Amino acid sequence: MTAANQRFRVAIVGCGIGRSHIVEGYEPNADKFEVKALCDLNVERMTPIADEFGIERRVTNFDDLLAMDDIDIIDVCTPPGLHYPMVMAALDAGKHVVCEKPLVGSLAEVDEVIAREKVSKGLLMPVFQYRFGDGIEQAKAIIDAGIAGKPYVGTVETLWTRGPDYYAVPWRGKWKTELGGVLMTHAIHQHDLFTYLMGDIKRLFGRVATRVNTIEVEDCVTASLELENGALGSFTATLGSADEITRIRLAFENVSFESDHAPYNPGAKPWKILPRSPETAERIAALLENWQHVPPRFTTQMARFHAALLGKAPLPVTSADSRRALELVTAFYHSSTTHEDVELPIGPGHARYKSWVPAEFA
Ligand SMILES: NC(=O)c1ccc[n+]([C@@H]2O[C@H](COP(=O)([O-])OP(=O)(O)OC[C@H]3O[C@@H](n4cnc5c(N)ncnc54)[C@H](O)[C@@H]3O)[C@@H](O)[C@H]2O)c1
């Protein structure tokens, strides 16, 4: 088999969102990946998924995956508190690694992962699947081509619904195992899209509240942000909305963008693109004239991962992207307890560098 058509062999640990990685990520890219092994502590959950996709190897002990010489990629889909040890062990075993969000549980851990990645044989790709699809990628292309001009302001709304059934899963709703609430678990995707399109954050003021569910972590948040480039932003997220929408609205000098409102797939459908002049409209039309459809979410993230594994393209999502997302989370939680603006970047000297989890829950 030549390198150009190498089919990478995958083992997935965690059969919740792990199933979506198979359905949306690996099956549509079956020429690029083969899922050879599944791991889950819960055999009743793992078995039907393994049967459904004809995956012969099923194990309950993560270390068994590390020992499989014919596995190229370990895909970590376990609850957040387990990501750090699993990612480090998989890198140490010489595997490539895919890891669900949040990559790890602190900036200290993410910096350790980044350092380990540099001396490891394998590549590490965190998951941020909302970055892929026609809508988000057309907006990104217009911005990167310099057509949109100066960023002015942006709003991000994550208006979702979660109730007692969702929080019946024991690891959810608790600081120790979920590591955060709507900010860390749900809005992290949309906030990543905001910084991806608008730029790095300079400072933010964040508020959090727990008003919807009886849980330790927050389920309502708002923030006011200032970016390095001078633009401003505001975030609102709740798990108590009557219906579910995701809405990202960005005003640039020459163009305003509004995302599609599909809560879990805002990047797929074309976004509302509002040029402020006929000249800008013409430039956008020329740029998008031969647009090739981009399948959304895991389908494209995994396809581009394959290109990166072959050395043909950069990783579509990097550990640096995860660090930026976790820096935002750290600053947000810190601001919400100090009731002060928090400046970024956040490094080892910061009080929350080793953990954003409140001391009483750590
Ligand atoms: N990208 C997204 O849109 C998205 C969506 C949902 C969840 N997630 C993330 O995916 C991760 C998993 O979430 P989920 O909703 O699938 O959770 P889940 O509870 O539905 O599934 C996790 C699975 O991991 C298994 N597991 C736990 N500890 C294990 C261990 N030590 N060894 C092997 N298996 C173990 C559990 O038995 C369970 O089946 C979380 O980090 C979550 O934030 C991401």
UniProtKB/TrEMBL annotation:
Pfam families: GFO_IDH_MocA, GFO_IDH_MocA_C3
Gene3D superfamilies xref list: Dihydrodipicolinate Reductase, domain 2, NAD(P)-binding Rossmann-like Domain
InterPro entries xref list: Gfo/Idh/MocA-like_OxRdtase_N, Gfo/Idh/MocA_Oxidoreductase, GFO_IDH_MocA-like_dom, NAD(P)-bd_dom_sf
Superkingdom of origin organism: Bacteria
Residue ranges of domain GFO/IDH/MocA-like oxidoreductase in the record: 137-253
Ranges for domain Gfo/Idh/MocA-like oxidoreductase N-terminal: 8-124
GO MF terms held by the record: nucleotide binding
UniProt-recorded name of the protein: Oxidoreductase
